[in-house]
Amino acid sequence: MSEWSSAYGYHVARQISGERIAIRGRTYDYRDLIKSIGGRWDRFARQWIVTMPRNNQRCADILYALTSGGCVWRLV
Description:
The protein has about 80 residues and is of the alpha+beta class. The protein has helices spanning about 10-15, 30-35, 55-70, and strands spanning about 20-25, 40, 45-50, 70-75.
């Protein structure tokens, strides 16, 4: 799961709890959602960095919404 992909779905989002992920793509419309789960903007890499909380259903739902909205993510 190291390459960028939007193909990973809901179940994978639940499995990566506690992991750091990077989110890029069309994130501008979703920046408030990303901030709400603790996302920090890395201006040099032009991507968001988020540490997924353990066993958090809400974060998995947000990551799934980002994926369906055109964003891509990968484990960091």
